[in-house]
Write a structure and sequence with these properties.
With about 90 residues, the protein is an all-alpha fold. The chain has a domain of about 60 residues. The chain is built from two helices and no strands. Helix 1 runs antiparallel to helix 2. The termini are far apart. About 0% of the residues are buried.
Length: about 90
């Protein structure tokens, strides 16, 4: 039985972009609030922004991509063949 594969359209692309922007704004607001409240030092804030924040965005992107249908599995792969170059003399 073949599966019906529907590719994500422009609405999914827009929702993905909006989700990433919302995740980034919420994370930056949270870090800013924690710094303002005195729970994070300047060094720890820098660590969070340089190390933890990009990892968080990758995690958010992977969750959004699965939710919006951008995920692929091994059944979506096709073999790739290269044509052999013929020597001309």
């Amino acid at each position: 039985m073949t599966r019906l594969r529907i590719t994500p359209g422009p609405s999914a692309r827009s929702a993905f972009r909006l989700g990433i922007v919302a995740a980034a704004v919420l994370a930056l607001a949270g870090v800013g609030f924690l710094y303002w409240a005195g729970h994070l030092t300047l060094v720890l804030t820098g660590f969070v922004l340089l190390i933890v924040f990009p990892v968080y965005l990758v995690f958010a992107a992977s969750v959004l991509s699965v939710w919006l249908g951008y995920n692929k599995d091994s059944s979506d792969l096709r073999p790739v063949y290269r044509e052999k170059k013929k020597k001309t003399s």
